[in-house]
Amino acid sequence: MNTPNENASSLDRSIGLNLAIILMISSIIGSGVFKKVAPMTAELQSPTWVLLAWVVAGLVSLAGALSVAELSGQIADSGGPYVFLREIYGKTLAYFFGWGNFAVIRTASIASLAFVFAESVHALFPLPEAGPGLASIHIGGIYPFANLGVKALAMGLILFLTLVNYRGLRYGSLVSRYATSTVVVSLVVIVLLGVFGGSGKWANISADLPTFQALKGDTFGFIAVFFSAMLSAFWAYEGWITLSFIGGEIRNPYRNLPLAILFGMLGVIAIYLSVNFAYHLVLPAGDLVAVHEAQNKVAAIAVVERIIGPVGTLLIAGLIIISTFGCTNTTILMSARLIFKMAQNGEFFKSAGKVHPKFHTPGSALLIQGFWCCVLVMSGSFDQLTDMLIFASFIFYGLCTYGVFVLRKRNGGPPATYKVPLYPVLPALFVLFCVVLLVITLYNRPGESTVGIALILTGAPFYYFWRKRTRTQA
Known about the structure:
Amino acid/polyamine transporter I, mainly alpha
């Protein structure tokens, strides 16, 4: 078992259980809860099946979270799945998880969240844009100066929040605390308005689109569509594993980290189901499909406009701004700990493994991460990257969960700390689901899946370079 390093170069253990739960919720709730119901309804054509997709995706994520919580109770160090994979399977697999998260998975998520924040501000207060000449400049099909006002604000947000977290964990956690509290209260208000505001109709919940029966008639095709819709829900739940990235900064981590993961996930599932139920109560399936086809509309805005009129646009735009602000902050805070741990193990730029002597934060790791996120914002490619790699994340999540079986066999039984409930059924079901999801995604989206795996493998040259450097210095 790994014992967290407590020497002078360690990060401060200053996060208690309540703050850990808030960070867990904040790392998950971003823009997905406001937007994903429309494309999911367009795919499944049935409110009941959309809600079922949210339930299944939530339960699957919870199964993974509960399984990872057992690992967190044994390997309570910064880096999350990176340190789990390293402990269980060795350096190589752990490295490619870490590289994939730095190069694309987490950094593209940060870029995407910051961009949605900037777009929401732009909807309220139009931002200046580059002239036609500058906007038309492209490099290999990438237009770095297109939509420049939104990109500049997105990069400004990333740099600002990077500096906030650079100055200390206390500042970053305060931002997450207030942003999360505001968003959760606002979402509860939306649910109450949808259920009791007079605009909702219970018949909308059971009213499928006319084409639903034909879609359901093709059993395999419908299963594939259901899994595709769940990918949208998984994007909204994405972040359930990131609390484990800061295991080295949680007080009494063998107890508090598993509890925070459990209570945080249960809270998010309850919020998501309630909010999406309210969406379908207010808007029939056909209207939600129309929102999706309009492309430039957000489902939550359409719902609140139906309830309280045009002022709903301002309300939801403001709520999305606060939500993405908080989620961007928490993702920046947590993700930097992963490359910090990689650098300490000689598998990343050496400077990223240093703790700031005054602020006790992974300062260099935060700056490197912030710079790369800004590059992704300028490239405008982050949405495509996250679509390609959301499924690839489940390769590593499945391996982490299978690690529960590996560690129990290696250690001669369950740990003395937190134990995953319903063992071995719960972790086995999650691993099986990961396998099925990967097979169906490879079948449905072979091009995107192949590119996603290839992007992760781009870390191979760096791996051999850093490995050679480590051997030379040994």
